[in-house]
Amino acid sequence: MDLSEAQKPDVAPATASAYLDPNYWDRRFEQEEHYEWFKDYSYFRHLILQYVKPNSAVLEVGCGNSQLSEELYRDGITELTCIDLSSIAVEKMKQRLLSKGYKEIKVLEADMLDLPFGDECFDVVVEKGTMDVLFVDSGDPWNPEPATVSKVMAMLEGIQRVLKPHGIFISITFGQPHFRRPFFNAAAFTWSVEWRTFGDGFHYFFYILKKGERASDDAEHAAKIDMPSINLFHEELDSEDYLFRTDLDEL
Which portions of this protein are annotated as coiled-coil regions (predicted)? Predict the structure, then answer.
């Protein structure tokens, strides 16, 4: 084992439901400098740059200690705003970005369920693994608990509100289309829904939701791509990402 790997703090929670505790994230961000949920930027760069342009005003929801904003900045996207609920994550992100000279990226402490922005102010909103946290104790994935539904809908309603007309919401997730489409295609939303996949062994989902572009029959006939089989390689099983697919409280 590489020495740097051996010295990394053990930040994985004892139970999956701990991901819902803001105190867990504060403790984690105090110890951990960087972690990428659902693969790093190189795996989906070819996808995201189709929709995020140099003049795009971009909001990243739940930035944590990811380097996504830095990668986008290096690709010429400079009007970036990152939010996270953890004040510790926000302060450490600010310091890291300033140390690299990325002074244009804004980092704010904010709740993704109550976005503190005016209407129609972003061209693109990106979330990477953030919405998945809301599902860790959702119960039956085919019929989630009402509390989960309420939180997910609050998040999505806020995102649609802050998107400009024809703005794009990008969701990078474990959530398969048959579980996400009931939310994305809810009557409250006007966006069209597409998805792509990326990754090795296990495929992650890259959703593209375009505000104001839903066809009348989109709710019944969302764009389809062949579903990949779930085939986890050893490195995927070792990854903490796998906890999002496992109800540890029942093991």
Answer: none
